[in-house]
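Render Isoaspartyl dipeptidase in 3D.
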Amino acid sequence: MLTLIKNVELFTPKKLGKRDVLFAGKTILAIEEDIEINSNLEFAIVDGQGFILAPGFVDSLVHFSGGGGEAGFASRTPQMNLTDATLYGITTVIGALGTDDVSRTHTDLVAKAKGLKQEGLNAFCHTGSYHLPIKTLGHSIRHDIMYIDEIIGVGEVAIADHRGTQPSVKELTTIAAEARTAGLLSGKRGTVSIHVGTGVEHLQLLHEVALSSEIPLSQFYPTHMNRNAELLTAGIAFCKAGGTIDFTTSTTEYDLANGELAAAEALAYCLDKGVNSQQLTMSSDGHASLPIYNEQNHLVGFEVGSESSLLGAFQQAVQQFNVPLDLALQSITSNPARILGLNKGEISVGRDADLVLLDANTLTPHSVWCNGQKMVESHKPLVSGFFS
Protein backbone atom coordinates (compact mmCIF):
# COMPACT_ATOMS: atom_id res chain seq x y z
CA MET A 1 0.00 0.00 0.00
CA LEU A 2 1.11 3.55 -0.77
CA THR A 3 1.63 5.76 2.28
CA LEU A 4 2.01 9.52 1.99
CA ILE A 5 3.14 11.63 4.93
CA LYS A 6 2.13 15.23 4.24
CA ASN A 7 3.55 18.53 5.45
CA VAL A 8 6.01 17.09 7.96
CA GLU A 9 9.23 18.64 9.28
CA LEU A 10 11.81 16.29 7.74
CA PHE A 11 15.18 15.37 9.25
CA THR A 12 17.08 12.84 7.16
CA PRO A 13 18.84 13.33 9.79
CA LYS A 14 19.86 16.58 8.02
CA LYS A 15 17.15 19.19 8.38
CA LEU A 16 15.25 19.64 5.11
CA GLY A 17 12.24 21.61 6.32
CA LYS A 18 8.62 20.91 5.34
CA ARG A 19 8.33 17.99 2.96
CA ASP A 20 6.00 15.23 1.78
CA VAL A 21 7.34 11.68 1.90
CA LEU A 22 5.87 8.82 -0.15
CA PHE A 23 6.71 5.16 0.38
CA ALA A 24 5.33 1.78 -0.65
CA GLY A 25 6.33 -1.70 0.37
CA LYS A 26 9.61 -1.21 2.18
CA THR A 27 10.96 1.56 -0.06
CA ILE A 28 10.86 5.36 0.01
CA LEU A 29 9.61 6.45 -3.44
CA ALA A 30 9.63 10.24 -3.32
CA ILE A 31 10.49 13.24 -1.16
CA GLU A 32 9.05 16.52 -2.45
CA GLU A 33 7.59 19.79 -1.21
CA ASP A 34 4.17 18.71 -2.44
CA ILE A 35 3.07 15.26 -3.58
CA GLU A 36 -0.42 14.48 -4.87
CA ILE A 37 -1.69 10.93 -5.44
CA ASN A 38 -4.14 10.29 -8.27
CA SER A 39 -4.61 6.55 -8.25
CA ASN A 40 -7.25 3.86 -7.86
CA LEU A 41 -4.76 1.91 -5.75
CA GLU A 42 -5.24 1.75 -2.00
CA PHE A 43 -3.27 4.43 -0.20
CA ALA A 44 -3.06 6.10 3.19
CA ILE A 45 -2.36 9.76 3.96
CA VAL A 46 -0.75 10.75 7.27
CA ASP A 47 -1.04 14.36 8.41
CA GLY A 48 2.46 15.36 9.48
CA GLN A 49 1.53 18.81 10.79
CA GLY A 50 3.12 19.30 14.22
CA PHE A 51 5.44 16.33 13.80
CA ILE A 52 9.06 15.64 12.91
CA LEU A 53 9.88 12.74 10.60
CA ALA A 54 13.25 11.14 11.39
CA PRO A 55 15.06 7.93 10.46
CA GLY A 56 14.30 4.95 12.65
CA PHE A 57 16.81 4.80 15.48
CA VAL A 58 19.81 2.46 15.20
CA ASP A 59 20.75 0.96 18.59
CA SER A 60 24.31 -0.26 18.10
CA LEU A 61 24.61 -2.31 21.30
CA VAL A 62 21.78 -4.43 22.72
CA HIS A 63 22.02 -7.68 24.64
CA PHE A 64 18.80 -8.82 23.02
CA SER A 65 19.25 -12.51 23.86
CA GLY A 66 19.84 -11.65 27.53
CA GLY A 67 23.03 -10.93 29.42
CA GLY A 68 25.04 -12.69 32.06
CA GLY A 69 24.53 -11.63 35.65
CA GLU A 70 27.48 -10.68 37.84
CA ALA A 71 25.32 -11.54 40.86
CA GLY A 72 25.12 -15.23 39.98
CA PHE A 73 22.89 -17.43 37.81
CA ALA A 74 19.65 -15.93 39.12
CA SER A 75 20.74 -12.50 37.86
CA ARG A 76 20.99 -13.46 34.19
CA THR A 77 18.99 -10.77 32.42
CA PRO A 78 15.92 -11.58 30.28
CA GLN A 79 15.64 -11.37 26.50
CA MET A 80 14.43 -8.25 24.75
CA ASN A 81 10.91 -8.12 23.36
CA LEU A 82 10.04 -6.46 20.05
CA THR A 83 8.16 -3.57 21.64
CA ASP A 84 11.10 -2.79 23.94
CA ALA A 85 12.57 -1.30 20.76
CA THR A 86 9.71 -0.16 18.54
CA LEU A 87 7.77 1.86 21.12
CA TYR A 88 10.87 4.02 21.55
CA GLY A 89 11.60 4.63 17.87
CA ILE A 90 14.22 1.91 17.43
CA THR A 91 13.99 0.03 14.13
CA THR A 92 17.50 -1.52 13.99
CA VAL A 93 19.30 -3.36 16.80
CA ILE A 94 22.76 -4.93 16.98
CA GLY A 95 23.15 -7.71 19.52
CA ALA A 96 26.24 -8.94 21.34
CA LEU A 97 27.43 -11.22 24.08
CA GLY A 98 29.28 -9.68 26.99
CA THR A 99 30.66 -11.04 30.24
CA ASP A 100 28.89 -14.39 29.92
CA ASP A 101 29.80 -16.43 26.84
CA VAL A 102 29.26 -19.76 28.57
CA SER A 103 25.58 -19.85 29.56
CA ARG A 104 24.89 -17.29 26.81
CA THR A 105 25.82 -18.57 23.35
CA HIS A 106 26.09 -17.38 19.75
CA THR A 107 23.54 -20.00 18.77
CA ASP A 108 20.94 -18.25 20.89
CA LEU A 109 22.14 -14.78 19.84
CA VAL A 110 21.74 -15.49 16.12
CA ALA A 111 18.43 -17.27 16.71
CA LYS A 112 17.13 -14.22 18.56
CA ALA A 113 18.27 -11.96 15.72
CA LYS A 114 16.38 -14.14 13.24
CA GLY A 115 13.33 -14.10 15.49
CA LEU A 116 13.32 -10.31 15.75
CA LYS A 117 13.62 -10.09 11.96
CA GLN A 118 10.64 -12.43 11.64
CA GLU A 119 8.67 -10.09 13.89
CA GLY A 120 9.54 -7.13 11.65
CA LEU A 121 12.66 -5.52 13.18
CA ASN A 122 16.08 -5.05 11.57
CA ALA A 123 18.41 -7.18 13.69
CA PHE A 124 22.14 -7.91 13.42
CA CYS A 125 24.77 -9.17 15.83
CA HIS A 126 28.46 -9.70 16.51
CA THR A 127 30.50 -12.83 16.96
CA GLY A 128 32.81 -13.06 19.97
CA SER A 129 32.37 -11.59 23.45
CA TYR A 130 34.45 -9.97 26.23
CA HIS A 131 36.95 -12.79 26.26
CA LEU A 132 39.85 -14.23 24.28
CA PRO A 133 40.38 -16.53 22.55
CA ILE A 134 37.33 -15.43 20.58
CA LYS A 135 34.44 -17.87 20.60
CA THR A 136 32.52 -18.07 17.34
CA LEU A 137 29.44 -19.80 15.99
CA GLY A 138 31.29 -21.43 13.07
CA HIS A 139 34.93 -22.17 12.31
CA SER A 140 36.29 -18.65 12.78
CA ILE A 141 35.61 -14.91 12.79
CA ARG A 142 36.00 -14.95 9.00
CA HIS A 143 33.49 -17.77 8.65
CA ASP A 144 30.86 -16.08 10.83
CA ILE A 145 31.07 -12.67 9.15
CA MET A 146 31.25 -14.07 5.62
CA TYR A 147 28.53 -16.73 5.80
CA ILE A 148 26.03 -15.66 8.45
CA ASP A 149 23.94 -12.75 7.24
CA GLU A 150 23.12 -11.43 10.69
CA ILE A 151 26.75 -11.31 11.91
CA ILE A 152 28.43 -8.04 10.90
CA GLY A 153 31.44 -7.77 13.21
CA VAL A 154 33.14 -8.82 16.44
CA GLY A 155 32.43 -7.84 20.01
CA GLU A 156 32.16 -6.67 22.50
CA VAL A 157 35.84 -7.37 23.27
CA ALA A 158 36.74 -6.08 26.73
CA ILE A 159 39.75 -3.88 27.44
CA ALA A 160 40.70 -1.91 30.57
CA ASP A 161 38.29 -4.08 32.59
CA HIS A 162 38.90 -6.59 35.37
CA ARG A 163 36.30 -8.91 33.80
CA GLY A 164 38.16 -9.18 30.48
CA THR A 165 41.06 -11.43 29.56
CA GLN A 166 43.51 -8.52 29.24
CA PRO A 167 44.26 -8.88 25.50
CA SER A 168 47.71 -8.12 24.13
CA VAL A 169 48.48 -5.85 21.19
CA LYS A 170 49.20 -8.90 19.03
CA GLU A 171 45.95 -10.66 19.98
CA LEU A 172 43.78 -7.62 19.30
CA THR A 173 45.60 -6.90 16.03
CA THR A 174 44.88 -10.43 14.84
CA ILE A 175 41.19 -10.14 15.71
CA ALA A 176 40.84 -6.80 13.95
CA ALA A 177 42.71 -8.00 10.87
CA GLU A 178 40.53 -11.10 10.58
CA ALA A 179 37.33 -9.07 10.99
CA ARG A 180 38.52 -6.48 8.47
CA THR A 181 39.40 -9.10 5.86
CA ALA A 182 36.11 -10.92 6.36
CA GLY A 183 34.30 -7.64 5.88
CA LEU A 184 36.12 -6.93 2.63
CA LEU A 185 35.32 -10.39 1.31
CA SER A 186 31.63 -10.25 2.22
CA GLY A 187 30.73 -6.60 1.65
CA LYS A 188 30.42 -5.90 5.36
CA ARG A 189 32.25 -3.50 7.63
CA GLY A 190 33.77 -6.02 10.03
CA THR A 191 33.72 -3.52 12.90
CA VAL A 192 35.28 -4.57 16.22
CA SER A 193 33.07 -3.41 19.09
CA ILE A 194 35.22 -2.65 22.14
CA HIS A 195 33.88 -2.71 25.70
CA VAL A 196 35.95 -0.20 27.67
CA GLY A 197 36.10 -0.58 31.44
CA THR A 198 37.36 1.77 34.13
CA GLY A 199 41.02 0.75 33.92
CA VAL A 200 43.52 3.61 33.80
CA GLU A 201 44.97 2.40 30.50
CA HIS A 202 41.77 3.62 28.78
CA LEU A 203 42.22 3.29 24.95
CA GLN A 204 45.99 2.94 24.88
CA LEU A 205 45.76 -0.63 23.55
CA LEU A 206 43.85 0.53 20.47
CA HIS A 207 46.43 3.23 19.74
CA GLU A 208 49.21 0.64 20.03
CA VAL A 209 47.46 -1.63 17.53
CA ALA A 210 47.19 1.23 15.02
CA LEU A 211 50.81 2.29 15.55
CA SER A 212 52.24 -1.22 15.17
CA SER A 213 50.08 -2.47 12.28
CA GLU A 214 48.11 -1.46 9.20
CA ILE A 215 44.82 -1.57 11.15
CA PRO A 216 43.27 1.93 11.38
CA LEU A 217 41.64 3.21 14.54
CA SER A 218 38.37 3.39 12.59
CA GLN A 219 38.19 -0.42 12.65
CA PHE A 220 37.42 -0.21 16.37
CA TYR A 221 34.20 1.05 17.94
CA PRO A 222 34.77 1.65 21.66
CA THR A 223 31.68 1.99 23.85
CA HIS A 224 30.89 3.06 27.45
CA MET A 225 33.10 6.12 26.86
CA ASN A 226 31.08 8.23 29.32
CA ARG A 227 32.16 6.17 32.37
CA ASN A 228 34.20 9.06 33.79
CA ALA A 229 35.81 12.35 32.80
CA GLU A 230 39.27 10.83 32.28
CA LEU A 231 37.96 8.22 29.85
CA LEU A 232 35.96 10.87 28.01
CA THR A 233 39.13 12.94 27.60
CA ALA A 234 40.86 9.87 26.19
CA GLY A 235 37.90 9.42 23.84
CA ILE A 236 38.25 12.95 22.49
CA ALA A 237 41.92 12.26 21.73
CA PHE A 238 40.87 9.00 20.05
CA CYS A 239 38.44 10.89 17.81
CA LYS A 240 41.03 13.49 16.89
CA ALA A 241 43.33 10.62 15.87
CA GLY A 242 40.64 9.30 13.50
CA GLY A 243 38.45 7.05 15.64
CA THR A 244 34.81 7.06 16.69
CA ILE A 245 33.33 6.62 20.17
CA ASP A 246 30.01 5.55 21.66
CA PHE A 247 28.22 6.65 24.83
CA THR A 248 26.00 4.31 26.86
CA THR A 249 22.54 5.65 27.68
CA SER A 250 21.62 3.02 30.30
CA THR A 251 23.12 3.96 33.64
CA THR A 252 22.48 3.93 37.39
CA GLU A 253 22.10 6.68 39.95
CA TYR A 254 25.10 5.26 41.79
CA ASP A 255 27.35 5.50 38.74
CA LEU A 256 26.20 9.04 37.93
CA ALA A 257 26.89 10.08 41.50
CA ASN A 258 30.36 8.53 41.29
CA GLY A 259 31.74 10.17 38.18
CA GLU A 260 29.85 8.76 35.19
CA LEU A 261 28.49 11.33 32.77
CA ALA A 262 25.05 11.03 31.24
CA ALA A 263 25.36 10.08 27.57
CA ALA A 264 23.62 13.29 26.51
CA GLU A 265 26.03 15.37 28.57
CA ALA A 266 29.03 13.54 27.09
CA LEU A 267 27.71 14.12 23.57
CA ALA A 268 27.24 17.84 24.20
CA TYR A 269 30.66 18.13 25.84
CA CYS A 270 32.46 16.50 22.90
CA LEU A 271 30.68 18.71 20.38
CA ASP A 272 31.65 21.75 22.43
CA LYS A 273 35.29 20.58 22.35
CA GLY A 274 35.22 20.52 18.56
CA VAL A 275 34.81 16.79 17.92
CA ASN A 276 33.25 16.09 14.53
CA SER A 277 29.60 15.13 15.09
CA GLN A 278 29.98 12.14 12.75
CA GLN A 279 32.43 10.53 15.18
CA LEU A 280 29.96 10.35 18.08
CA THR A 281 27.16 7.88 18.79
CA MET A 282 24.89 6.72 21.61
CA SER A 283 23.59 3.20 22.30
CA SER A 284 21.36 1.74 25.01
CA ASP A 285 23.24 -1.40 26.18
CA GLY A 286 19.68 -2.63 26.56
CA HIS A 287 19.03 -5.78 28.61
CA ALA A 288 22.67 -5.82 29.74
CA SER A 289 23.42 -6.43 33.36
CA LEU A 290 24.54 -3.17 34.97
CA PRO A 291 26.66 -4.26 37.91
CA ILE A 292 27.63 -1.55 40.35
CA TYR A 293 31.20 -1.91 41.63
CA ASN A 294 32.96 0.12 44.27
CA GLU A 295 36.61 1.22 44.04
CA GLN A 296 37.76 -2.22 45.19
CA ASN A 297 35.77 -3.86 42.34
CA HIS A 298 33.32 -5.37 44.83
CA LEU A 299 29.75 -5.75 43.61
CA VAL A 300 27.50 -3.40 45.57
CA GLY A 301 24.42 -3.21 43.34
CA PHE A 302 22.78 -4.49 40.18
CA GLU A 303 20.40 -3.10 37.55
CA VAL A 304 19.36 -3.92 33.96
CA GLY A 305 19.84 -1.78 30.85
CA SER A 306 16.83 -0.48 28.93
CA GLU A 307 16.40 0.24 25.23
CA SER A 308 14.08 3.12 26.17
CA SER A 309 17.10 4.98 27.55
CA LEU A 310 18.22 5.72 23.97
CA LEU A 311 15.14 7.86 23.37
CA GLY A 312 15.55 9.49 26.78
CA ALA A 313 19.17 10.43 26.07
CA PHE A 314 18.24 11.85 22.66
CA GLN A 315 15.51 13.97 24.24
CA GLN A 316 17.85 15.09 27.04
CA ALA A 317 20.57 16.05 24.56
CA VAL A 318 18.20 18.37 22.70
CA GLN A 319 16.05 19.67 25.55
CA GLN A 320 18.57 19.98 28.38
CA PHE A 321 22.02 20.21 26.77
CA ASN A 322 20.99 22.21 23.67
CA VAL A 323 22.46 19.81 21.14
CA PRO A 324 21.04 20.70 17.70
CA LEU A 325 18.31 18.27 16.75
CA ASP A 326 20.02 17.10 13.58
CA LEU A 327 23.28 16.32 15.43
CA ALA A 328 21.46 14.49 18.21
CA LEU A 329 19.65 12.42 15.58
CA GLN A 330 22.92 11.67 13.78
CA SER A 331 24.26 10.03 16.95
CA ILE A 332 21.45 7.44 16.97
CA THR A 333 20.78 7.03 13.23
CA SER A 334 23.25 7.69 10.41
CA ASN A 335 26.44 7.61 12.48
CA PRO A 336 26.09 4.12 14.01
CA ALA A 337 24.75 2.78 10.71
CA ARG A 338 27.79 4.08 8.81
CA ILE A 339 30.28 2.84 11.42
CA LEU A 340 28.73 -0.63 11.31
CA GLY A 341 28.34 -0.67 7.52
CA LEU A 342 24.54 -0.84 7.51
CA ASN A 343 22.34 0.69 4.82
CA LYS A 344 20.15 2.23 7.50
CA GLY A 345 19.81 5.44 9.49
CA GLU A 346 18.94 7.86 6.66
CA ILE A 347 15.84 8.98 4.80
CA SER A 348 16.28 9.26 1.03
CA VAL A 349 14.66 8.00 -2.14
CA GLY A 350 15.36 4.29 -2.64
CA ARG A 351 16.20 3.69 1.02
CA ASP A 352 14.24 1.42 3.34
CA ALA A 353 11.23 3.07 4.96
CA ASP A 354 12.51 2.93 8.56
CA LEU A 355 10.78 6.00 9.93
CA VAL A 356 9.75 7.53 13.24
CA LEU A 357 7.17 10.31 13.54
CA LEU A 358 8.08 12.43 16.57
CA ASP A 359 5.93 14.95 18.39
CA ALA A 360 7.64 18.26 17.60
CA ASN A 361 7.33 19.49 21.20
CA THR A 362 8.15 16.41 23.28
CA LEU A 363 10.18 14.39 20.73
CA THR A 364 8.10 11.36 21.71
CA PRO A 365 7.45 8.75 18.99
CA HIS A 366 3.86 8.86 17.77
CA SER A 367 4.23 6.39 14.88
CA VAL A 368 7.01 4.03 13.82
CA TRP A 369 7.51 2.18 10.52
CA CYS A 370 10.10 -0.53 9.98
CA ASN A 371 10.74 -1.52 6.36
CA GLY A 372 7.45 0.18 5.52
CA GLN A 373 5.40 -1.80 8.04
CA LYS A 374 3.66 0.34 10.64
CA MET A 375 4.74 -0.97 14.03
CA VAL A 376 3.47 1.80 16.32
CA GLU A 377 0.60 4.29 16.02
CA SER A 378 -0.54 6.85 18.59
CA HIS A 379 2.17 5.58 20.98
CA LYS A 380 0.67 2.07 20.96
CA PRO A 381 2.03 -1.09 19.30
CA LEU A 382 0.28 -2.30 16.16
CA VAL A 383 2.70 -5.23 15.96
CA SER A 384 3.75 -7.15 19.06
CA GLY A 385 6.25 -9.91 19.50
CA PHE A 386 5.27 -13.56 19.59
CA PHE A 387 5.15 -13.64 23.40
CA SER A 388 4.23 -10.01 24.11
